[in-house]
From TrEMBL:
The lineage of its organism: Eukaryota, Amoebozoa, Discosea, Longamoebia, Centramoebida. This is Fe2OG dioxygenase domain-containing protein. PANTHER family: ALKYLATED DNA REPAIR PROTEIN ALKB-RELATED, NUCLEIC ACID DIOXYGENASE ALKBH1. SUPFAM superfamilies: Clavaminate synthase-like. The keyword tRNA processing does not apply. It holds the Pfam family 2OG-FeII_Oxy_2. Residues 101-212 form the Fe2OG dioxygenase domain. The keyword Cell inner membrane does not apply.
Amino acid sequence: MCIEHCTGQVEGVHSFYDGEVSRELGYFDPAISPASSSTSAASSSSSTPAASATPAKKLNLVNKARINVPIALHPPQFTAVAQELVRIAHERCASVPCLDEPNTCRINYYTNSGKIGWHYDRVPSLSKEEQRTVTDPVISMSFGNSAEFQYKQRMDDPEESVILESGDVIIFGGPARMIYHMVPRVIKNTTPKGLDLRQFGPGRFNVGYYYN
């Protein structure tokens, strides 16, 4: 599990699932009580008591939070939608590979002041050169407030811009898999009527599906 955080107004670490999530399942939930981490540190390194005495770091409030969810924990009906979207994208653009079930769902939450600068969605296990060979698609869904989405193929290219509204989907794969993109702003008070996100506060959710 991965959390990305910066400066802003919401908790950067939060679990969307009940129960303890452990390294045995292949990922780590930073929202677990610090006591469980201290206990494991003490038991695995009894000769270095200082390790278990280290206080847990308190996270700052942020304006963008991220959580990576293994597909095994994700509702299958949502995964089925992602697969169907990839199939449609492949029919419209053959350079986008038509693959089976993605292996990760990444959920980003932006407050109304949330934003992220230029980046590309890299694969952690690959080198910088290997990144550019990846073609497996990313399926990116937007919910809640609208947001401006900018993108370009190379950093020295002029950027293109589009407004993503709630329910919009962007798929980038094939030669466009590693496009540079950013979200410079969230547009307040644009959540559709009937979509109740009050328990999370005003803002935007981006739900992305990944194959690597």
